[in-house]
Amino acid sequence: MALDRFGRHIHYLRISLTDHCNLRCVYCMPEDMTFRPNAELMQDEEVLLLVRMFAGLGFDKYRLTGGEPTVRANVVELVRAMAATPGVRSLSMTTNGVLLKRLARPLAEAGLQRVNVSIDTLDAEKFRRLTRWGSLEDVWQGILAAEEAGLEPVKLNAVVVRGYNERDVVDLARLTVEHPWQLRFIEMMPFAGATELQQSQMVTAEEVLARLEAAFGPLELTRNGDLDGEARVYHIPGAQGEVGVIASVTQPFCAACTRARLTADGRLRLCLLREGEVDLLTPLRAGATLEELRQLVLDGVWHKPWGHGLAEGVIPLNRVMSEIGG
Ligand code: SAM
Ligand code: SF4
């Protein structure tokens, strides 16, 4: 079992399958982003070896992310092998949805259980502006395909950016009236690559909730206010689905954190918003034994930082968001 020195049991691994992406969201990466050569990324057998090792350490919950995980070659087979790994209890994916129309069914059949799809607005023009060239229709078709394939409950993520989509939260939330989806509004976090926009155009969860309550009346808090993952979840009276807010910046949930992240280039990152990482891929390629790798993970987890330092002005600048995986 992987414990940190504060007594948190770390058993949730988010794996970035690639830093490459078919979009260029303004809050995530610069337009002229350059990606790592494939040889620097974990190869399929390296991902699977590490997953087996993490599962042996009690990691039972896995989320595939990126970059855009669906652009990774062979993603369906990789999912199939991961889903069949003993100890992997939960396997989900965060995706921009662009390729889901084609991939939702094969991924579900391979053992993927759920998806979170990112959709920041229902206005096609604004969507293009936020993603720099994405097509809203592709993502919409992807969401419907995910639901049809049984990748449920469908969760939708929206990062709220002032000057881009802060008014769109109402239309997005309205989706939950007709659909049993969970729409989660995320506070934009600062990293390298788009730091200025991320800091100056962040919209707080409090503001999002105020906009929703102005439109729908008082929201009902669900789960007695307990977090669902990282989201505080509400219900619009009479709606089928739920709305959530992820207030990573203004109301950090570090005390309840159970996660670690594996970057596409094989570094174990113990906190999304702290620069510290443990290189696993270099020792793996240099012939480290499984026991040596396990020890690197256990030591890394033990030293997992308590929480992020955004309130003190500490911003992680060694990677852009898409390189870590969200
Ligand atoms: N490409 C996939 C996608 O967009 O869903 C997966 C990777 S993306 C980095 C994971 C999540 O992080 C997405 O929901 C995205 O909207 C969110 N995200 C990206 N940049 C962010 C930022 N600066 N602050 C908060 N969330 C961010
Ligand atoms: Fe790509 Fe996701 Fe980043 Fe958008 S948020 S650029 S889709 S990795």
Describe the model.
With 326 residues, the chain is α/β, with parallel strands linked by helices. The protein has one domain: Alpha-Beta Barrel (TIM Barrel). The chain is 32% helix and 17% strand. It contains 11 helices and 13 strands. The protein has helices spanning 44-56, 75-83, 100-110, 124-131, 136-148, 169-178, 195-200, 205-216, 281-285, 290-302, 321-324, and strands spanning 12-16, 61-65, 90-95, 114-118, 155-160, 182-187, 220-221, 227-228, 231-235, 242-246, 259-262, 267-269, 277-279. Strands 1, 2, 3, 4, 5, 6, 7, 8, 9, 10, 11, 12 and 13 form a 13-stranded mixed beta sheet that branches. Helix 2 packs parallel to helix 3 and helix 3 packs parallel to helix 5 (136-148). The longest helix has 13 residues, at 44-56. The relative contact order is 0.16. The mean pLDDT is 96.
CATH topology: TIM Barrel
**What Rg do the Cα atoms give?**
19 Å
The largest β sheet comes out as: 13 strands, mixed
Total number of strands = 13
Separation of the first and last Cα atoms: 24 Å
Count of discrete alpha- or pi-helical segments spanning 4 or more residues: 11
Quaternary state of the chains: single chain
CATH architecture: Alpha-Beta Barrel
Q: Can you tell me the CATH class?
A: Alpha Beta
The CATH homologous superfamily name equals Aldolase class I
Q: Roughly what is the average pLDDT, rounded to an integer?
A: 96
- So what's the overall shape? globular
Portion of residues in beta strands equals 15-25%
Q: What ligand species are in this complex?
A: S-adenosylmethionine, iron/sulfur cluster
| Helical content band | 25-40%
**Unreliable parts:** none
How many structural domains are formed by the residues? 1
